[in-house]
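=== RUN LOG ===
request id: a7f3
mode: sequence -> structure
chains: 1
length: 310
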Amino acid sequence: MRIKVLGAAAGGGFPQWNCACPNCRGVREGNDALRPLLQSSLAVSANAKDWYLINAGPDVHRQIESFSALHPGPGIRETPLAGVILTDAELDHTIGLLSLREGSSLTIYGTEIVRKSLQSAFPVIPMLQNYCSWEWQILSPDVRQRVGSLEEGTKETITVETVPVSKKAPLYARWSQQDDGSKDFWEVGLVFHNESSDRRLAYFPTLESITPSIESCLRKADILMVDGTFWSENELVRMGAAVRDSRSMGHLPISGQSGIAERLASIPAKRKIMIHINNSNPILKKDSIERYALEQLGFEVAYDGMEVEV
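=== RESULT ===
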């Protein structure tokens, strides 16, 4: 199974040209220790022919252009893009669906609460119904299911396990959550299993906490791609960019007691990769103390174009 990092940033990531934080100033001033990133997303394929996007952000067209395997053709409206798998209903992960309206035969995978949200609160599905005829496949938490061909004996398929992460609804949908008293999980992590190699990649772009079920999945994985949004808990508060800390935003910080680095220290995965990185995070700077400390602990920092085999 081939997995390509199309984007490694969080919340629009780099470049936020109106941002005054040191990282963004460094990009504007030509600091070559910093690299602009696209919105966090993966492309996954079991056969190097049919590809699935993991989330579709606002820069999805740039991501497709950056990876030749996703380029359309040779036929009219022919595309190697077979579908999109959603980890949540956040705008940063779903607004790109509007840009994919010319892909008339795509399959969208997501939980039932995400489907309902895209049907009503952010009505992407009704908006696109006259442009394309997409099929929706429900992802059920704690259930392993095949993505792609369901024919018996087909080896070149992707098996995905959906793992509950958070009940935090997108800001645009919180009024509806209050109205219906929903206790559904809005955010999930994904574990991709290559049955041929018996290798697994765990993708958790957001981690509000590390529950026993999440830890169990991480311990079984060969490669981890996990929430690297913030280095410290009060990162944005100290900058004057926010009033809430990282945990209240739904992200465990990397550093500190009970931070992600400490919690994952005993996980036996061969590779541990930080992804979904906010533009305030000092690990984006290749020569930073924080980046060095993270690498000394055996962690990698994702970048646009990174590839792994599972």
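=== NOTES ===
The longest strand covers residues 158-166.
Residues 2-309 form a domain with the Metallo-beta-lactamase; Chain A fold (CATH 3.60.15.10).
=== END ===
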